[in-house]
Amino acid sequence: MTDIILSTDLHAADSAMQVMRENEIAKTVAEYLAGIYPDHQWACNCDLNGGVVHIYNLNLSGKWGFLMKVKDVVEDGWKKKIMQAGGELLERYRMSRGRFNQAQYEALNTDNFGNHIADK
User: Fold this and answer.
1) Rounded-to-integer distance, Cα 86 and Cα 67, Å
2) Is the pLDDT of residue 64 over 80?
3) Any residues with CB less than 8 A from the CB of 35 and at least 6 apart, and which?
């Protein structure tokens, strides 16, 4: 895994450069989560203008995930913050931290529309 490397200016003047940076951050975060919690479908989207990274586990929900500030994802200690947030998301759905568990997944409660229900 590579560390996220950005200049101190998180808002790139050039839009193509900004898109590249956003993709780099999103990819690095998703790959890191996939390494810690394998076989889960992690999806990340970075918005440098908004200063946030959206992180989802698509096995559980494409609507609900967690939001982190970009500055928290690019500074020292970001791996621990991402690991904790990803693990907390799994636990909200009563999934164990670690590799995806099909039996746990099949036992999850769903609402009338088939969406998985997280703890509040």
Assistant:
1) 11
2) yes
3) 1
The token pair at 117 is 């229900």
Name the residue among 96, 103, 52 with its Cα closest to residue 74.
Answer: 52
Distance between CA atoms of 15 and 1, rounded to whole angstroms?
26
**The model scores a pTM over 0.85:** no
Q: What are the tokens at 20?
A: 């590249």
SS3 call for 24: helix
Contacts of 44 (CB under 8 A, 6+ apart): 25, 26, 27, 29, 30, 33, 53, 54, 55, 56
Place of tokens 């409660």: 109
Helix (H, G, I), strand (E, B) or coil at 51: coil
Q: How many CA atoms lie within 13 A of 4 on its CB side?
A: 29
Q: pLDDT grade, residue 62 (50/70/90)?
A: confident
Query: Residue 49, CB half-sphere, CA atoms under 13 Å: how many?
Result: 6
